[in-house]
Write a structure and sequence with these properties.
Elements lengths: L2 H9 L3 H4 L20 E5 L4 E5 L5 E6 L2 E6 L8 H15 L17 H4 L6 H6 L2 H4 L2 H16 L10 H5 L6 H7 L7 H16 L6 H16 L3 H5 L6 E5 L5 E7 L12 E4 L5 H14 L12 H14 L8 H14 L4 H8 L8 H6 L3 H9 L19 H6 L5 E6 L2 E9 L20 E3 L3 H21 L13 H13 L5
Antiparallel strand pairs: 1-2, 3-4, 5-6, 6-7, 8-9, 9-10
Helix pairs in contact: 11-13, 11-14, 11-15, 15-16, 20-21
Length: 501
């Protein structure tokens, strides 16, 4: 039976009438598939298989660690048989309850007008209902429903195609935030997160389990851009701790790809930053020592709780925004795009199913010349992003009176610079490179000698030019971009000092 015959049989009309896109079939006349007596799904967080009785008007199910209720009595009555068939289809094809959890967003919405409209009138209906065109949360489940009607050849939707639903406009808030880069965490806050994880890793054995869970979640969000649901589902069996050939403790992590269209998806494998492995090791050792039976590494009940805990913790640490795991995810993807990474690599890093999902980051990316101007301080983008943490400067006498290991010296480009300032921690205990890493550090007191900072600025700018010439044409992250922050802070430092007499 060819496509034309199948459509004709479904519509119950003559061929010339059935293939008319200006005609429509009422919902009551649609030939819906029979519902099974039971449908099952597997929940990653609970690590169990659950069943649903499709004939019930209330479906209780697990999603992202939460027990949810889908109440069909709150949906338009004429749509209930269709929506039940669609939800069974979602579970059977995807194996999860992700799609049916979004059907509740259609509570109280009158959709029969759309489903019973001729295909030629779909755009008119869509434009007349801003609750769908202005809110991606509502348009998403409706688009999925329309695609089901098309793929199942239901009613006159047998004449449609998925491309038609993709062309229906939606002003997605998330896409807008990506395009204007408002989701990107500032360089200053990224540096604070790095220092926080470094500092906490050095005393990981002294921390409580609750704080270790937050810090490991922060490391995974920051380094991998992991979604909350991916983090919550990580079990101790997904983590491998070992020593490498250089006797350095390493950690490999395996986690699932979320939101995939294919049923057979390879897991993602990542290697944790060695400096932060002590946090993960201490968390696992704590669970082993207390005999806890929960196989989850983070031991969070659901993804929402993880997000709330992480956001509250970082607010307490003084970050200037309210970051979530998704903020770190968007930031990581945007930094890859800014570094010239192709869509394929961004797609693989994020675990997306298509390259199109990386398009927004590429479009929002700055070009090479803009990054170079920013690194040189020629752009105002990073100017004055932070103030001198201590609010004071060290005189030459202060520097000379300080312990020798607290006197900061180093190289800026090819220039040897001494008397740069005072490190309150002492340089031997700091693993960062002097000069380029000292500026902006809350433990650094800069010298009151303006000439010292002018010399450091000139040296770092020379290094930027050298890096730019050596990396031209490369698709890797520009090395000179790492000097953006110290150069901007040096400029701000000079603005606080009186000019030379």
């Amino acid at each position: 039976m060819n496509l034309k015959q199948r459509i004709t049989k479904n519509l119950g009309e003559e061929p010339d009438v059935a293939l008319d896109p200006t005609r429509a079939v009422p919902l009551a006349e649609w030939n819906l598939p029979h519902l099974p007596k039971v449908v099952s799904y597997y929940d990653k967080i609970q690590d169990q298989t659950f069943t649903i009785n499709p004939e019930m008007d209330e479906w209780g199910f697990w999603y992202n660690g939460l027990h949810l209720i889908l109440d069909f009595t709150r949906l338009e009555r004429a749509l209930v048989p269709l929506l039940k068939c669609a939800c069974v289809h979602y579970i059977v094809t995807k194996g999860t309850t992700a799609e049916i959890s979004k059907v509740s967003r259609l509570y109280g919405k009158a959709l029969s007008g759309l489903l019973e409209s001729p295909l030629t009138d779909v755009k008119t209906w869509w434009a007349a209902h801003p609750e769908f065109t202005q809110r991606s949360s509502c348009s998403m489940p409706l688009r999925v429903l329309l695609n089901y009607c098309i793929s199942a050849r239901l009613g006159h939707w047998a004449l449609g195609s998925q491309s038609m639903t993709r062309r229906l406009p939606t002003n997605g808030v998330e896409h807008h935030r990506i395009s204007n880069r408002s989701e990107v965490i500032s360089a200053f806050d990224q540096a604070k997160v790095t220092r926080l994880l470094d500092a906490k890793s050095r005393c990981a054995r002294e921390l409580k389990r609750t704080e270790l869970s937050v810090l490991v979640s922060l490391a995974w969000s920051f380094q991998y851009g992991m979604r909350p649901i991916q983090q919550v589902a990580v079990r101790q069996s997904n983590v491998r701790l070992y020593y490498d050939a250089k006797n350095v403790k390493q950690a490999h992590l395996v986690f699932h790809k979320a939101k995939q269209r294919s049923e057979h998806v390879e897991p993602l494998v990542r290697q944790m930053k060695p400096e932060w492995v002590p946090l993960l090791e201490a968390l696992i050792r704590h669970a082993e020592s207390t005999g806890q039976q929960n196989p989850s590494v983070l031991q969070y009940a659901n993804a929402s709780y993880l997000t709330n805990r992480l956001t509250a913790y970082l607010r307490g640490e003084g970050l200037t925004i309210s970051p979530t795991p998704y903020s770190f995810r968007h930031t990581a993807a945007q930094l890859m795009a800014d570094a010239g990474k192709p869509r394929e690599l961004i797609q693989e890093f994020l675990g997306h199913s298509t390259k199109n999902s990386a398009k927004a980051y590429v479009q929002a990316s700055t070009n090479q010349s803009e990054m170079l101007n920013t690194a040189l301080g020629a752009s105002t983008l990073y100017r004055n992003v932070e103030s001198i943490a201590t609010g004071r400067f060290a005189s030459i006498a202060d520097i000379e009176a300080a312990d020798e290991d607290q006197q900061v010296s180093g190289f800026a480009g090819g220039r040897a610079i001494a008397g740069l300032g005072i490190c309150q921690s002492g340089q031997p205990s700091c693993s960062y490179n002097p000069v380029s890493s000292c500026y902006g550090c809350d433990r650094f007191i800069p010298s009151a000698n303006r000439a010292i900072h002018e010399e450091a600025l000139a040296g770092l700018r020379e290094q930027v030019i050298l890096f730019e010439h050596s990396s031209r044409g490369s698709t890797d992250a520009p090395p000179f971009y790492q000097l953006t922050r110290p150069i901007s802070v040096i400029q701000h430092t000079l603005e606080q000092l009186p000019p030379n007499e």
